[in-house]
């Protein structure tokens, strides 16, 4: 009986280590892919909150000849409100 429990515990431990190792490798691979996308210009930084967003799937606003990319409609609205307020003051 004790041998069965020991073998079961050992199998559980081995499976746990294999699973955790796969998750670690997956996280490292995703981090490398994100770094490559930032370096290649596919990811751009949201000017309001600083989050990196995909250039092709982001919410955009044109400010003159500059195109700004946002992670959400809330960040876009905060930026628009800030620019509108600055124009009122000037």
Q: For the largest sheet, list the strands in their spatial order.
A: 1-2
Largest sheet: 2 strands, antiparallel
The whole-number mean of residue pLDDT values reads 84
Count of structural domains: 2
What structural class do you assign from the helix and strand content? alpha+beta
Overall, the morphology is: elongated
Question: How large is the share of residues in beta strands?
Answer: 15-25%
Instruction: Work out the number of β strands.
Output: 4
Instruction: Tell me the Rg in angstroms.
Output: 24 Å
Distance between the termini: 83 Å
Instruction: Name the helix and strand elements from N-terminus to C-terminus, one letter apiece.
Output: HEEEEH
Separate helix tally: 2
Helix content: 55-70%
Q: Which stretches are poorly predicted, pLDDT < 50 over at least 5 residues?
A: none
Summarize the structure.
By secondary structure, the protein is α+β, with helices and mostly antiparallel strands.
Features:
4 strands, 2 helices, alpha+beta, 90 residues
Describe the structure in your own words.
By secondary structure, the chain is α+β, with helices and mostly antiparallel strands. The protein folds into two domains: 1-40; 41-90, no CATH class. Helix content is 62%, strand content 18%. It has helices spanning 2-40, 73-89; strands at residues 43-45, 52-54, 59-63, 66-70. The radius of gyration is 24 Å and the shape is elongated.
